[in-house]
Amino acid sequence: MATEPDDPLEGDVARDDEEEDGFSRARRGFFGAVVAGAMGGAAWALGGERRPGGRVALRPPGALPEEAFSDACTRCFRCGNACPNHCIEFHGVEAGLGMMFTPYVHARSRGCILCGECATACPTGALRPFEITQEGWVASVDMGTARVNRDLCYSYHGRTCGACYQACPLAGRAMTIGLYETPIVHADHCVGCGLCEQACLHLPQAIRVLPTRRRMPAEAT
To answer: What's the pTM value of the predicted model, to 2 decimals?
Structure first.
């Protein structure tokens, strides 16, 4: 049987403490959102700024050209939350305001499976939805292009491997193989998903995806 507290104020104090804890959590969440929003707004305003060295990130599939992507991305993190493969990461403050909180894929850690969930979740069109077929990937996805370092690749030194070819979702089109399963990349079909880079058995990897450096159509020469 429940008993009343010896001190008639004890129950009220406990309830007050619980309410205060709930209020504190809500307050921390609110201020955290405000800070993130303010920093994201600053990053959006300076969207043309690049990381040191002028490098361009490997953006998720369906991304607009870099300048348009930086303008359209609101740093809402929805693409990362929607990704079932957990391959989307977000730049921190060390990347500079123009890149901060924007999404990227670190292919060596985890490549993109081209499921399109991130583009479907994007509320601004910074990531455009695409058809989940080989034809749809080739037509609409341009994350980057794989490049093979023949000096490092096992297959180019007579040691059959083929790990990158087996991982490629466009095997036979974006990548074919020669003697000893030497990988041959066909840039006109490679979409830059990075699964080949993730799969490479060599350390450091013998195949890397170079991010696309696309400009706005008006800037094209």
So the answer is: 0.73
Half-sphere exposure of 3 (CA within 13 A, CB side): 3
pLDDT in tens, 149-169: 999 999 999 999 999 999 999
Distance, in Å, from the CA atom of 160 to the CA atom of 180, rounded to the nearest integer, reads 5
Amino acid identity, residue 215?
R
**What's the topology of domain 144-211?**
Alpha-Beta Plaits (3.30.70)
Contact indicator for 168, 196 with CB cutoff of 8 Å: yes
Question: Following CA atoms 141, 86, 216, 50 in sequence, which dihedral angle do they give, to the nearest 10 degrees?
Answer: -150
Q: Which residue has the tokens 């955290």?
A: 32
Helix H, strand E, coil C: the string for 136-164 is HHHHHCCCEEEEECCCCCHHHHCCCCCHH
pLDDT tens-place string over residues 37-78:
444 444 444 433 343 334 568 999 999 999 999 999 999 999
| Dihedral pair phi/psi, residue 146, rounded to 5° | -75, 145
**CA–CA distance, 2 with 8 (Å, rounded to integer):** 14
Residue that the structure tokens 């979702």 belong to = 169
* Contact status, residue 150 vs residue 156, Cβ threshold 8 Å: yes
Query: Which part of the chain is CATH 3.30.70.20?
Result: 144-211
